[in-house]
Amino acid sequence: MNWGTLHLILGGVNRHSTSIGKIWLSVIFVFRIMILVVAAESVWGDEQSDFVCNTLQPGCKNVCYDQFFPMSHIRLWCLQVIFISTPALLVSLHVAYKQHEEKKCLEKRQGLLKQEEVEALRKQKMRIVGAFWWTYVISIVFRIFFETVFTYMLYFLYGGFQMARLVKCSASPCPNIVDCFISRPTEKTVFIIFMTVVSGVCGLLNVAELFYLLAKACVRQTRRRPHPSHLPRSSEKEQNEMNELLSVDATHQKMVLELNKTS
Amino acid sequence: MSWNLLRDVLSGVNQYSTIVGRIWLSVMFIFRVLIYVVAAERVWNDEQKEFTCNSRQTGCENVCFDYFFPVSHARLWALQLILVSTPSLLVVLHVGYREHREKKYKKKLYEDKGSIDGGLWWTYFFSLLFKTGVEISFLFIIVWMYNGLTIPRLVKCEVKPCPNVVDCFVGRPTEKTIFLYFMIASSILCIMLNICEMSYLIIKHCRAQCAERSVRKARSSKCGCDSLQRDQARLKALQNGTLRSTMSVQTM
Known about the structure:
By secondary structure, chain A is mostly helical.
């Protein structure tokens, strides 16, 4: 169990995403998860063992470390990536639901589907319209929200995006004020700035995707309205109801026959 | 041997689960197992090394650590995740048993081997009950063992060979407390999902039973002039008696 599982889950959603969504996914995996795993984790690996305080008082180092690093950057970034990836599950659920409905419809019309037909149905790309559009937009809104919240948390917890070389600690049991030194502060600052910039880029991609979807929806609406050959919405609805009643009637007759057979 | 084995085994369960069961599975893997492996395990990695006592008495640190942390949170969670995931295997075993029966008698005994009805319904229900029981038990164990839901910065230790009362300091207490809250919240979410799923199963089962009873009544009434609507409702109820959804979530 590692980031590969997340990659599998999100890879499935990728098929139904917009182009901006696909770019966002690549940025997440290449510039965030990969950097986290191959570089950032080694930099933060010795964060507590190499955190030294200018005192022999036992426990002072532990207490000062806890005071200045309530939550490690690495853990915050891991949680951030997991949380911003999970709205994609909403999209995944909606896709699965729609595919299940389509499969039911096809089976009603032509009987049990073969394995290849089921696979072809699964691989079909869904158009981002109707209820699916809303699910997709909500997932993007959640992504933007989590991105912002975590970036703000990082800024709030550490008073900025820089790692100091020296911190002055006066928490008990440290006697008076004690100088504590952080390991690799410059390298950590570079990574913090890098990850914050990538987080900003991902946020901008999400905002761009949101505007793209809104623009597409507006264009779709304007295209629908002026076209004279299109049936007005109310008569289209009536036509659909009539078609449904006709098919229901046929199904009823079939059911009566089946019931009579079984009894 | 790692968490991937659990993931592979449980992915097989997915096809026999209800929709709530699939949501539960995603929550399990993403919010619990993944977070445990990539984050929580590392926070508790150096817990004994960073546990410091204000004493030079040899053995005092070891004894105090053992007294205050009899079983590490990380190990408790690993146990909890394994025990909570494995009842789902009972469902897979039951479906396997059905397939075995069909092979043995060389005829089609079940319309749909994976459909949650009959004996499989009870197996599924008991697996949910067991999962919920395990989750609640572990929550109680954590609260009882550590007297609450926070990890203190400082603990006062009087266990021999420590002289008098010795101050001992825990490593990363705030980060550990945050992860403790996170894991408890995800455990409570899983308990609620299990309860929802149990209610969903009971309601579906009751509806199927009612529909079956009304079909039997209609057959025994010998009246051949049933209305079209009643026939449709009866047949629909019979068809809806099969609970399993046939499409699985992509990659779940």
